[in-house]
Amino acid sequence: MSQTTSAPVASPAGFSDVKGWFWPADQLLFDWFLTRQNAAGGPAGDLLELGAYLGKSAIFIGGYLRPGEEFTVCDLFDSPAPDDPNSAEMGRSYATLTRRAFEANYLAFHERLPTVVQAPTSVIAGRVEPSSCRFIHVDASHLYEHVHGDIEAARQLAAPDAIVAFDDFRAEHCPGVAAAVWGAVATMGLKLICITGTKAYGTWGDPDPVRTELLAWLTSRSDLWHGVEEVAGAPLIRIDGKKATAPAPPRPLHCAPDPDPGSDPAPEPTHPAAAAPGPASRGLLTRALGGRRRR
User: Nearest to residue 125, comparing CAs of 164, 163, 150, 153?
Assistant: First the structure.
């Protein structure tokens, strides 16, 4: 049984009160992928998140759950890490993390909790049905060995044409994530669709239909720069979202009290530095790859 603190956990008054690193560009992409899946005739499938922190992205994902589907969240929370390097990582980054805080945050926005697996993500392949998940968010350990295992589990659990999002695949403090993700492209059949400053989105299904639809949507938005280049023999959409306008946030179940009229609103988080955008995109995939390439 996990140990939790006895101090009361305050419920957030709004989505911005939930601590976490979930930037507007990725909120837009989560919304786009999940809404596309939920469109009329979209196949049913479960949702899965590996690594939850305090629940910010889980709260967002939970809003797209359909009747008959299951949302599973796997995180160590207060449990001991399975090995010394992972324990050290947990101590550096998540010393104050508790399952009670996650649950309080999630229940502020949803009537019931997801299925919570409080354990190392290495157990998840035995807790979720194979080929059952239509959307998977991998955001647990940053250590190569663990990320590699999470990707292998995601491949087993992914339904046909499932979307898998990988967090921190390009952060300078997480080289193990980059190595595992690009290794999966080289050796495990993973096909990347697009990348942002913080996440990579891919599939083990056919990427062409979703890539074409995504390009059409990106072309319609003035707040997201995008470009396309060929990487590892396939088109990859690069998205710069420093100017992204986040979608409407999840609404709490109970209205928050009106703020003090004399107080200033809380500032929005600043997006981490990203590579400077290139010239404006030319839009559709064939046009984006058709011009002369620079060396």
Answer: 153
**What are 17's two structure tokens?**
């009160």
C-alpha 23: how far from chain center: 10
Residue found under tokens 């009106």: 258
Q: Are 72 and 128 in contact (CB under 8 A)?
A: yes
- pTM equals 0.81
- The residues, any chain, with a CB within 8 Å of residue 123's CB and separated by 6 or more, are 74, 117
pLDDT for 193-245, tens place per residue?
999 999 999 999 999 999 999 999 999 999 999 999 999 999 999 999 999 99
Q: What is the arrangement of strands in the sheet containing 133-138, beginning at the earlier edge strand?
A: 115-118, 71-75, 46-50, 133-138, 158-167, 199-203, 191-195, 234-240, 225-231
Extract the tokens encoding 154: 């995601």
Confidence of residue 7 (pLDDT cuts 50, 70, 90): low
